[in-house]
Batch of 3 targets.
Target 1
Amino acid sequence: MMRTLTLEIEPFETVKAEMAETFSHVRSYSILETLKMDYKEGICIEIFEFILKESSSIDNIRTVGNLEILSVLKSTDDKHTCLIRYTEPEESNVQFQESDLGLIHTIPTIISPEKFTISMMGERKNLSDFIEMMRSVGTIRKTSFRRTAHQKADILAVLTDKQREVMVAAFQNGYYDYPKRISSNRLCQKVSISKPTLLQHMRKAEGRILKEIMTGYFQRPE
């Protein structure tokens, strides 16, 4: 059974010091969507919402710590929705690879100098392992487990139950890794449907997710 975990963490002073550069222009940031997570290469492609300090301008910022801003998708006052690429430093890439627990970022995930609110979706054992991992980051002030509820704000809410089941299984089993860790033949056995039906669900789900992400950012040509 999938669960959603939300942690509230007060970061240690050493962690705050390490993130000081990140927060030189930013008051806080939220992870809205994870588009790609490559633990082997140490690269993430995600959509973030940054809340900037009054003296900062998004036009003058290209990096936020280890986050590279690839594109500014939307700006409203001090809030800026950006496509970012995160690259894990080489010296900590081994630890980054070991943090692969097959979990999926969900909302709310909000990072500020004073408090980290982190939400992850996955199997309960993996979530428990994640909690233990976070004890090295700061003092855990609040822990909440709940059955996964796909709310409107959740990108997976645009999918049917079966499409959601297929996509989560594909992600967890490494279908979207490069190279793939599981074939479509093996994946259809895991979710107990035929291969043509599996591929149909995946194509429709991918289209719906992409449409939901891009809505309001780009206009299709006539």
Target 2
Amino acid sequence: MSDSGTGGWQNEPFAVEVKAGETRAFCMCGQSKTGPFCDGSHVTTDKLPEVVTFDEDKTVYICGCQQSGNRPYCDGTHMTLSD
């Protein structure tokens, strides 16, 4: 997994159901084996996870390609990447 090129976990967003009051840590280093969630792999990098506490029950769309300009959220960039 990589933070550059077209590397990533998958070429579409992860639909993640969250609940009000729930806190999730999303991988920002691109090395997590449990993407899009942080598994602690960032300890060998200078990047930290994006920790988000949600204020309502909802579905969030988390970047799977690791190229979104709005990470950890999907911004549609995956649709412009070649395989």
Target 3
Amino acid sequence: MVVLAIANQKGGVGKTTVALGLAAVAARSGQRVVVVDLDPQANATTGMGVWNATTTVGNALSADADGSMSSVIGASGWGPEHFEVAPLLAPSSPQLAHIEPQLATDPIGAQDRLRRSLIGIEADLVIIDCPPSLGLLTVNALFAADRVVIVTEPSAWAVDGVDQILRNIARISERRNGHPDIAGIVVNRLARTRDARYWDEQLVAAHPGLVVRPAVAHRAAVAEASAQSLPITAFLRSGSAEAAAQFDAVLTHLTRSPAASADAMTGETSRDGAVHDAPL
């Protein structure tokens, strides 16, 4: 089982969009996928067709017990009509925001509850959609993850935001004997504008070997699929097949071994111009 945390302390960069895109292509390939929605905004939950869940991630964290997530994980709206092996969901709700202060009162296990709750879960891939902050919810995700996916947009503040989350991941890695690894930096919503290309190039220059290629292009189909609670792999609209193909390529990079992933990204970064000319 590989546990991927999708993170960035900056909000509005499309972490949930990327998390759902990766979940969809992984499930389409036959992997057993579990999405853990750790964001109180619950966008991954509604994006997978679940509203007003009665049992949520908050219940598993409050239980403070090994394997407690097993009683939370269930079917989503992405059912068997879309996949042979439909992805499962550990849903969130706004009440999850009240769990963070509760965790802060635990001097021993505050950072480790999510990791313990996932013990015994049967899956090939667990994708954790983190909130846009470095509170105890995100820290729990980083303590539970094997690898971290940093999602960013090509914008003026992207480089600073990525630097900040990389520093904090490094601090946690020092306490976890080198874990989690950095799976890569995914540039999301890359538009065909001079400004977007410039900031994308700045990210590649600032973090050689870490920026995943291809970037995820800015496409209306991706946002519309999420708004309609459909997986991008089943959404019938112009651009959806191309978006799914990009997520598929990104997932291949992110789930490689750290050494192989670094080699592949270094090689593709040197051919960076090709990705910018990809059709939108």
